[in-house]
Amino acid sequence: MKRRHLLLGGLAATGALVVGWGVMPPRQRLTGSKPLPVAAGQTAFNGWVKIGSDDVVTVMVPKSEMGQGVTTSLAMLLADELDADWDRLRTEHPPIDAIYNNIATVADGLPFHPDDQGAIKRTAAWLTAKTMREIGLQATGGSSSIKDLWLPMREAGASARAMLVAAAAQGWGVPAAECRVVKGVVSHAGSGRSAKFGELAERAAKLPLPGSVTLKTATEFKLIGQPQKRREAAGKHDGSARFGIDTVLPGMLYASVVMCPTLGGSVASFDAKAAEAMPGVKKVLSVPGQRGGSGAVAAVADTPWHAMQAAKAISVAWDHGPAATLSSAGIHQQLGLALDSGDGFGYYSRGDAAGAMKQAAKTLRAEYSAPLLAHATLEPQNCTVQFLDGRATVWAPTQVPGLARYVAAKALGLDSEQVEMNVTLLGGGFGRRLDVDFVAQAASIARALPGLPVQTCWTREQDMTHDFYRPPCVARYEAGFDAQGKPVAWTAKSAGPSIVQQFLHRQFGLPGAGPDKTTAEGAFDQAYEWPNARIGHAIVELPLPVGFWRSVGHSHQAFFKESFVDEAAHATGQDPLAFRLALLARHPRHRAVLLRAADQAGWGQPLAPAADGAKKARGIALHSSFGSTVAQVAEVSLDPKDPKRIRVHRVVAAIDCGLAVNPNGIAQQMDSAVVFGLTAALFGEITLDKGQVQQGNFHQQALLRLSDCPVIETHIITSTEPPEGVGEPGTPPIAPAVANALFALTGQRLRSLPLKLA
Amino acid sequence: MTTTLNINNKPVTVTAEPDTPLLWVLRGELQMTGTKFGCGMALCGACTVQIDGEPARACVTPISAVGQRAVTTIEGLQGREITVLRQAWTEIDVVQCGYCQSGQLVAAAALLKAVPKPDDSQIDTALDGNLCRCGTYPRIRAAIHRAAERLNAAA
Question: What does the alpha-carbon distance between residue A68 and residue A72 come to, in Å, rounded to a whole number?
Answer without folding.
Answer: 9
